[in-house]
Design goal:
The protein has about 375 residues and is an alpha+beta fold. The chain is about 40% helix and about 20% strand. A hairpin with an 8-residue loop joins strand 9 and strand 10. Helix 1 runs parallel beside helix 7 and helix 11 crosses helix 13. The N terminus is likely disordered.
């Protein structure tokens, strides 16, 4: 199994978790506290820290991992582990297979956004590649996954684990489903607070070439700066950011794919990956660069709940179009444009086009 067997080594500092039956009142209190927590507008790291503490009482578990996601591609953009090591290339390869049971993509698109692995496999978890390669070698039986979906968009995922012979119940699965939209709203708010401008935006794009094991073959100097922005010090010694690993694994089965994510400075970063031709088989090229405001606009629109028409209007505002030009392009009257703008301003919490553009570019300080 090699490095696979290190994935779920639990911390024993606080002793084994107590899986006694949690009553309805305990979960009700946890849900109320989670609602208040999401309303505080925390960043993703702080939100995950606080939410994990609340989940310890409502859904006892031995270990957990959180991911932020690009709602447009459902590619994982960030990883936060609790009582388990940081993710490596084996996790990126096996944990997020789109055709495996309870894949995050299926949970995100399904009516129920949470699932227990043993239930999904009909009591035969060994039917899951993820279970065979990652969970069983570490004596893990219980896995509860939840896609954090709000208004049809998935902004992250949560996985909880229990060592054998303990498992999660369908009642716990249903409670996790109730939390999906709540936690999704919290991660969505954290994404809106990110910015698209700053010192990094002035740099050239960085390029990485990865081999079949996602090890760095070659790297340009700007890519080193971008890797620091994504949480890696020296790629020669430190593991690559999980977002890079996840994207490179996705690119191996696709002609090319991309993702937008928030860097350490709170600014948006874009990555694109595609199989590299003309060299060794299995090599992948990754380009990292600043995200243009036009690429962020759909995320901002989704986060604020803009309608389809309002999203079209916002994109034209970002292009600098006047009211008359917007009316002509959308085949509506200038008065209707103003009506839509008022709705957009109210949802985004701004009072003018300038503030709206500033919100997307990040110059308003949100």
């Amino acid at each position: 199994m090699g490095s696979h067997t290190t994935f779920l080594v639990f911390s024993r500092g606080s002793g084994p978790c107590d899986h006694a039956v949690v009553n309805h009142r305990t979960r009700e209190r946890a849900f109320d506290r989670m609602t208040k927590l999401v309303g505080t507008g925390l960043g993703s790291s702080e939100l995950i820290d606080e939410a994990t503490a609340l989940l310890a009482a409502a859904l006892p578990h031995d270990s957990a991992c959180w991911h932020t996601m690009d709602p447009a591609t459902l590619i994982e953009t960030g990883f936060a582990a609790r009582n388990m090591p940081a993710a490596d290339e084996s996790v990126a390869r096996f944990a997020f297979l789109p055709d495996d049971y309870n894949s995050h993509a299926r949970l995100a698109r399904g009516k129920r956004h949470s699932g227990v692995l043993t239930d999904a496999t009909g009591g035969r978890p060994d039917r899951s590649v993820r279970y065979r390669e990652l969970l069983r070698p570490n004596n893990v039986l219980g896995e509860l996954r939840t896609a954090l979906v709000i208004d049809g968009a998935c902004w992250g995922s949560l996985s909880l684990f229990r060592e054998a012979p303990r498992d999660f119940t369908l009642d716990e699965r249903d409670f996790a489903h109730q939390l999906a939209s709540l936690l999704g709203r919290g991660l969505r708010t954290a994404g809106v607070r990110a910015r698209s401008s700053g010192a990094g935006a002035a740099l050239w794009p960085g390029v990485l070439l990865l081999d079949e094991r996602s090890q760095v073959v070659s790297i340009t100097e700007p890519a080193r700066w971008w890797l620091e922005e994504l949480g890696t010090g020296d790629p020669a010694h430190d593991p690559l950011p999980f977002a890079v690993l996840a994207l490179s694994e996705r690119a191996r089965t696709d002609t090319g794919t991309g993702v937008n994510l928030v860097g350490a400075s709170g600014r948006w970063v874009s990555m694109h990956a595609a199989p590299a031709t003309g060299g060794q088989p299995g090599h992948v090229a990754v380009v990292i660069q600043a995200t243009p405001p036009t690429a962020i606009a759909p995320l901002i629109s989704a986060a604020y709940g803009f309608t389809a028409r309002e999203r079209e209007l916002v994109e034209l505002v970002l292009q600098g179009c006047s009211t008359r030009e917007i009316a002509e392009r959308l085949f509506i009257s200038p008065l209707t444009v103003q009506t839509h703008l008022k709705s957009v301003f109210a949802k985004a919490g701004v009072r003018s086009r300038r503030e709206l553009v500033g919100r997307v570019h990040g110059s308003s300080g949100v």
